[in-house]
Amino acid sequence: MKKGVIMPILALLVIAVGFLLWQWRRVVTENEEMSQLFEIEKEEMENEYSSFAVQYDELQVRISNDSLSHQLEKEKLRTQQLLEELRQTKATNTAEITRLKKELATVRAVMRTYVAQIDSLNQVNRQLTEENTIVRKQYREATRTIDVLTVEKQKAEEKVQLASQLDAVGILAIPCNKRDKEEHKIRNVTKVVVTFTLAKNITTQTGEKTIYVQILKPDGDVLLKEDYGSFPYENTDLFYSMRKFIEYDGEQQDVVMYWPVEEFLYAGTYQVFIFADGVMIGQSSFDLK
User: Fold this and answer.
1) Residue 160 has what pLDDT?
2) Hey, is 166 helix, strand or coil?
3) Residue 277, by phi and psi: left (phi above 0), alpha (psi -120 to 50) or beta?
């Protein structure tokens, strides 16, 4: 073959080989760039999946609803499972990467739904907390008012009770001899006369009243007869020396009661207490020598 023909052919071959090499390098470069893009995209997806898993933990801390917490736990596990699938997928597996990208979009949408739901619940809880605080404050104020009214009522009832009590005035406890003369020598005393006046009281319930008189000897023992009895007084029972039934009409009324001396008496001061309607209405004393 002539030299003039070979040279052009060689030149064309060189050009063709050069073009092919250029094309091959371009393809390789594009593939490398695509691989880098896939790796970057895969890494971004992994970061986002990880972020969503952490956010589910944070959302669970913000709520106290067991049912909702269970749903969040379920979504968190699903997100972690997709993250693990993504980590095991090669960046060049475009089909699997595309599927996981769609799953990521679903996870993102579900996350937005839960965030909105929890924010709404928290807002309601804040409102309920504020309302509960107001209600508790109103309750405390109402309780204080009731306590004040209760105390005032108790005081008023005590005043009414005190005002309605019988009151014995002008009390005299006189030891007497057989001639009904006042006598303080023990050997001559035959009876003790107790006299007093029930003051007028229109607030006292009228009707039959029982008057009890208790005579205490100097040693504190009660003077008693064989048929002695007792009466209620301040959550206990007291023995009485004598009693008398009267009909009280609210007007001033004189009362006289007698204690016949049938036992040994000794020198000292004798205390006399008068009771009616469960309260002590007067007291006096006398001396023997």
Assistant:
1) 45
2) coil
3) left
